[in-house]
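Shape is hard to put into words, and the shape of a protein is harder than most. The fold becomes a row of whole numbers, each drawn from a learned catalogue of backbone shapes. The outcome of that step, for a single protein, is printed below.
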Amino acid sequence: MSAGADGALRFDVITLFPELFAPFLEAGVARRAYASGQIDLKLWNPRDYADGNYRRVDDRPFGGGPGMVMLAEPLARCLAAAQAERADGAAAPVVLFSPIGQVLTHAAVERWAAGAGAVLICGRYEGIDQRFIDRHVTHQISLGDFVLSGGEIAALALLDAVARLQPGVLGDEGSHHQDSFNPAVDGLLDCPHYTRPEHWAGLLVPAELLSGHHARIEAWRRAQRLRLTARQRPELIAAARAAGRLSARDEALLADLERDASG
């Protein structure tokens, strides 16, 4: 992967709607990654590389059918400009957000966060001319089995996930270490969280969290992670077991939960 200026993690985003990214850069914890220069983000509009007075970037699909297809040539020119401006001159990975891509996971986000960036392609309309994809795209990413009106939301999701892993971006350096799906911990879901007041709408904070006893609190949190994951995402339990991330105590608790569930 190729880096941005001064070794920053650089992302070039090719989008017909660069204005969608402005609020993201100005608000929330992710802005710290851009304000500090840890991530260098540049937005590129393929319309600036299109021909004619109308700067056309799409046309009707061959074979007929609804909608329009993004033209390959403006995208190729835009991509060439983005690649040429990257610091070391080496071609960066080119990511297209697409239903056929691999679903984005925590492990994948960690890999992107540890790299030096990429060019992100935000498709629109019915899609992009396949010849551009075949020639230039190196990675395809999906957020899941649903369709968005464009790739911008998916690009923002990746950028946000990567930004929060940069040092100093989160207020507490340890915040992301307990995230759901983090394989460095166990890959399980996170536990429930509570704050003041202790009594709200007739509901109480679990007594363990008020005990002041560190070991008791950690045992409660571990049990909740196991219980929640076993109920909502049992495949994550299986993956943690296969990776050797479950202790004998974990397995005993899971066995108890299974017996309770079976009656």
